[in-house]
Amino acid sequence: MIFGKAKILRSHGWQYIPDLYSVTLTEEFRGFPLLSDTEDKSDIERAAAICPTKAITTEPLTLDMGRCLFCGECAKCAPRNIRFTNEHRLAATRREDLVVKVGDPAPKFDMSVVRPEISKYFGRALQLREVSAGGDASIEMELGATGNVNFDFGRYGVGFTASPRHADGLVLTGPISQNMAEALDICYNSIAEPKVLIVCGSEAISGGLYADSPAVDRSFLDKYHVDLWLPGAPTHPLCFIEGVTKLRSTKK
Amino acid sequence: MKLYHITNNTAAAVAIADIPVVDYVELYNDLKERMKDGNYHVAHYFATEISEGLKFYIILLNDANGEVLISSFVPDYYAEGLASLTALHPQFHPFEREIHELYGVPFDSHPWLKPLRFSHDRRNKNSSMDTYPFYTIEGDELHEVNVGPIHAGIIEPGAFRFICSGEQVLHLEIALGYQHRGVEGEMLRENNSLRRVVISESVAGDTAVGHATAYAELIEKLGDKRVDEDLYLERMIGLELERMAMHIADTGALATDIGFQLYQVACEALRTVTINTTQAWCGNRFGKSLIRPFGTNHPLTAAKCELIRKNVADVRRRYAELRRDMLEDPTLLARFEQCGLVPHVEMQRIGGVGQAARASALCRDIRKSHPSGYYATKLSHEPITKQDGDVMSRLMMRLDEVWQSADYILRTLESYQPKGELSAPDYFAPLHADSLSFSLVEGWRGEICHVALTDDKGQIAKYKIKDPSLHNWLGLAIAVRSEGISDFPINNKSFNLSYCGHDL
Asked: B189 FRET partner, CA 20 to 30 A, in A9, B409, B470, B476?
């Protein structure tokens, strides 16, 4: 039996990614969108009309990553206007920074709005409580993956904890279903100050496909300050890792 | 009198006029006897509003000959109520509960007429998550354990209430609905087929390929366009990759819950390879954007086929080593064997589907009984079944099905010459008017069923989604009866049911 285990260990080899911050994802991955204007607006108008979450405006041309599900259909409709790069580092500290404009070369992460106590208290260790409020399970699995053998975010002192009493912050996923709104509020208020609030996934950021659904209640986000916005459907583990690392960084 | 319109899973959509509108009493009497035959089970049963009140549709599957039986009735339910089918055949319970919750239809002598998911459009607005009528037992030696809605981990919410005698679970009741975000209503908000397929991908994010395939097949049955055979093949590869990835994830999750780190990390790594293969194909680790109606934006190329073959072969080899070691591990066997039993007869009564049913020797597999697409034409699938219905059987289902799925992918890709381009998706194809279209797809959890009704202009007027979890949650509640409460986690992982797929 012990030989069996040794064999498994040998054939698996090393799995962890030594440097989490220099990874380049596959070309197929749809990350940061590059926008360019054209005289002819017909393509982009078709793309804006078909967009499942109305993430595109045509005058002026913008794409809201907080609504975008990265389905890529707009880039098929309007290849001259929209091109998705494989840049997975999409985190932002302000909601409005998720709206990409023509000519934006890279995502904006504005360090100036990060509260100084975050790096002071959580620079060495950050334990988070995840709450899924209508999330579709893919994003929850991606958050679980941040701690797995490949990404191993735990090596930098970041992990997920069961009790909000043990947590330094909350990660919200899902469009916030009405039936979950109260439990989410109770959970957030059970976390001791100071705490961080991270909103993960386009569905949580804007409601996504369910933004206008009568079954969701998004008043939670009006009440509390959000420290980090992480787009994606689902958010890639490396996007989460990169965003949280920047949030805790002491460099200003 | 003809009670059913009989069709199958490859035929075109059915004209609503062809579906007999029958007398409920006659249908009830027929179902009373018919459902005693284990070959039959209910795939969907729902009500829809029409000018005269409510029209009910019921879809039954016959596993023996691949028939799909569809019937409908327009009862005068306010006057006399409807006799409950659940009282005879518990597999009807979620459907009758949903109809009761949404429209207030009384079902006489239904044993468990509780709210199903606290829909936002439920009839009784006074009933809420806080007032769920949990079952209770009085007794000095009993205690209740309430878990949820927020669980100790990164998982979705649901409330579990255990009634225990000491460490032993006497009864578990599962109250769901926290994830309800109005999926079926959102399907109708806009007449946008892209939006609908993207919503299908979000019904259960871990079954994105399964639900999107169900949507695509449903729409294709309503259109006149021919679909390329190669598209079916590529969908099959997508479905089997998803099955492999999730079965491997569950193998790892089961290992986690018995503290077996080696298997856990090995499975995490193998799952990563599998989902990264999907990502290299379509740009998303869960296969979102892969499946689209009438075409695809991500046709396979020779290079991608080669990558999939290489990775799947590698995963299969490494998973086989794991499998061999797991089956010989006495500590693992001690925890999993004879734990969480769901006998064949119980599984059949509750209408279990998918790999959980097959672990209890109930051979329900859409790929075999009602195949469509590539499964219907090129691949003759032989389902794997296990006899015992315990956690070990449900684990062994995964151990074997990963091998089988990998085998299908490798065998198919060996001879496949991809054209490198397939027709682009069509979101604007005209649909047949006044029709009922359904699709049945074997997702990794089991039978996915989507049903749509179109109006006289060919617009979708009603959309119903069923995730296999709807059937199987009751199986979990039965499995933990008389087990130690500390064995709940391994039972839960052995089913790994979807909250969002149930709550919609």
From this structure: B470
Query: What digits encode the pLDDT tens for the residues B413-430?
Result: 999 988 878 888 999 999
Question: 3-class secondary structure for chain A?
Answer: CHHHHHHHHHHHCCCCCCCCCCCCCCCCCCCCEEECCCCCCHHHHHHHHHCCCCCEEECCEEEECCCCCCCCHHHHHCCCCEEECCCCCCCECCHHHHEEECCCCCCCCCHHHCCHHHHHHHCCCEEEEEEECCCCCHHHHHHHHCCCCCCCHHHHCEEECCCHHHCCEEEEECCCEHHHHHHHHHHHHHCCCCCEEEEECHHHHHCHHHCCCCCECCHHHHHCCCCEEECCCCCCHHHHHHHHHHHHCCCC
CA distance B358 to B447: 12
Listed residue (A169, A151, A141, A181) closest to B154, CA to CA: A141
Q: What are phi and psi of B421, to 5 degrees?
A: -145, 140
SS3 category, B269: helix
% of residues, chain A, pLDDT over 70:
99
Chain B residues 224-263 within an 8 A CB cutoff of chain A:
249, 262
Q: Confirm whether B5-116 and B183-503 share one CATH topology.
A: no
Query: Taking a C-beta distance cutoff of 8 angstroms, is the pair B315, B278 a contact?
Result: no
Residue A233 pLDDT > 80, yes or no? yes
Q: 177-216 in A: which are within 8 Å (CB) of B?
A: 177-180, 182-183, 187, 203, 208-210, 212-216
The nearest CA of chain B is from the CA of A63 a distance in Å of 17
Enter the pTM of the model. Answer: 0.94
Domain map of chain A by residue range?
Answer: 111-248
**Domain A111-248: top CATH class:** alpha beta
Q: Write out pLDDT tens, residues A69-107.
A: 999 999 999 999 999 999 999 999 999 999 999 988 888
The class that CATH gives domain B5-116 is alpha beta
Domain assignments of chain B as residue spans, ordered by start: 5-116, 183-503
| DSSP bridge pairs for A230 | A200
Check B194 against A71: CB less than 8 A apart.
yes
Of B180, B203, B329, the CB nearest to A177: B180
Q: Are the Cβ atoms of A76 and B192 closer than 8 angstroms?
A: no
Q: What is the mean pLDDT of residues A159-174?
A: 93
Residues 88-127 of A with CB under 8 A from B: none
